[in-house]
Amino acid sequence: MKPSxxxxxxxxxxxxxQNLKSSMDCNLRKLRSDLxxxxxxxxxxxxxDGARAAAKEANNISxxxxxxxxxxxxHHRTYQAAVKRQGVYLDVxxxxxxxxxMITKIAFTWGNTFxxxxxxxxxxxxxxxxxxxxxxxxxxxxxxxxxxxPEKASKAFRExxxxxxxxxxxxxxxxxxxxxxxxxxxxxxxxxxYIQSCLSDVYKECAEIKGKGMLxxxxxxxxxxxxxxRRAMFEQIADGMTNELHAIKNKIIDQLxxxxxxxxxxxxxxxxxxxxxxTILRRHFxxxxxxxxxxxxxxxxxxxxxxxxxxxxxxKLQAQSECPEPVQGCSK
Length: 332
What we know:
mainly alpha; two-stranded antiparallel sheet; 82% helix
């Protein structure tokens, strides 16, 4: 392809690619807005509700551990063993029990958000994928037609490009889903260890109580410690879970932003006007740009002819008549 044709092609493609990128950026902003609705306006709201519910229920739970055996309380030795071991002994786990009201409160919304197939996060990502693949396909179809390349000639090229893009974006979403499926389950695990850490000093003080009336003093100390810490403790758990959810959301956006940019770069490479000379697409591409250049040349010649005066036209005709006729053949 001649330099002028190459330059014309590159300018055109670069301009159209920039328009496509702008459209993809708009789709990314919509995806972020959709994820904000899913996380901040739904899941995290429920998370805060769960924290308040757990703080409210904490005193009832701690009182139940110390109740009489007939009222559902623990054996005194089991109770004391759990206290000495930071709230965990055999199948007894004070920390997990305190966290349970919060986990229960968010379970339904959490499931609707992250369930494998129909979770709202994956629906939003699937919608994003379909939109950008359709826009990319439309861009390529229209670009090649603009250059006068017949659909039949470019069919194989377009199919390869469409399939390549679909595999790339689908693979990225699958990778995101695999990672997020692990990460979101790990968030549930934040609560119990954090409760144990918050109550560590209370457990330690309870374990050091000795002498007459020890069991009742331990119960009273633990109950008072939980009552004192419960509100701030569950608010901080909600803050930690919120931060982790925001990290998941930002990771999703970052990965899809990078993949969208990669798709633009792939298109740019695929549309370089330096294809192999023996491809059908290259021949049609060159012919289309060549025809465009001839049209421009014809317009310029007509303009030049109209601008010439009568004397310039007579001189041109005289010069043409004085040129010798071309030799038709040679005789020995």
